[in-house]
């Protein structure tokens, strides 16, 4: 099981803050997970429509689209940060 | 030191605490203390168009766990780059009003240059790496603040040097 987290407008569009899922075995990278998420219904398709603007973190560390998710316990998806 | 909190901070008290060693004595190896405070502006961003009006609240969401890790990592990098005696990053979360404090960065060094540079570095990285998101409420409802390209450029500058 992998915990997926969604923040800011990604959370609003998916309608959930977090969930535990069994990722498909073929998903090896962050981009693969996003491609799979898009197939999970209109909310996810909409949330990840502009997937190039969405940032990800694997186990609480920033990760690029081509980053491996091997062994990941927690993957988060969010818009570019706007703190400070 | 890093802190993420809902409540306000007192800049004077934070400086005094930072200046003291573990026995409560004022340190004499610090020659320069720089503080940066970010506060809530009441005007909507120019990119939202003319006459967009004023914001009534600003709500900050964050990623508990990762936020603390990122802030600690950023602070550690600043200490690796400059000879700092002490530093502090405080970031508020939750709903804030125009005029409220959002973020505080304090850097202390023997000399002013390291303190100035490190404070600027911390803010530039905080703007682009720490997982906080701002949501404004204004006359046209609520919306998420978009990231600025100029913030990315400011952070990128430190990698080129």
Overview of the structural elements:
Chain A: Pfam families: ThiS (PF02597). Chain A: InterPro entries: Beta-grasp_dom_sf (IPR012675), Mopterin_synth/thiamin_S_b (IPR016155), ThiS/MoaD-like (IPR003749). Chain A: This is Molybdenum cofactor biosynthesis protein MoaD. Chain B: Its EC number is 2.8.1.12. Chain B: It catalyses: 2 [molybdopterin-synthase sulfur-carrier protein]-C-terminal-Gly-aminoethanethioate + cyclic pyranopterin phosphate + H2O = molybdopterin + 2 [molybdopterin-synthase sulfur-carrier protein]-C-terminal Gly-Gly + 2 H(+). The complex is a heterodimer of chains A (84) and B (161). Chain A is α+β, with helices and mostly antiparallel strands and 84 residues long. Chain A has a single domain, classed as Roll (Ubiquitin-like (UB roll)). Chain A has three helices and five strands. In chain A, strands 2-1-5-3-4 form a five-stranded mixed sheet. In chain A, β3 and β4 form a beta hairpin. The relative contact order of chain A is 0.27. The model of chain A has no long low-confidence stretch (mean pLDDT 97). Chain B has 161 residues and is an alpha+beta fold. Chain B has a single domain, classed as Molybdopterin biosynthesis MoaE subunit (Aldehyde Oxidoreductase, domain 3, Alpha-Beta Complex), CATH 3.90.1170.40. Chain B is 34% helix and 31% strand. Chain B is built from four helices and eight strands; from the N terminus they run βαββαβββαββα. In chain B, the strands form two sheets. A four-stranded mixed sheet of chain B has the order 1-4-6-2, with helices on both faces. A four-stranded antiparallel sheet of chain B has the order 5-3-7-8, with no helix packed on it. In chain B, β7 and β8 form a beta hairpin. In chain B, α2 runs antiparallel to α3 and α3 crosses α4. The chains are: A alpha+beta (84), B alpha+beta (161). Chains A and B meet through loops of A and β3, α3 and β7 of B.
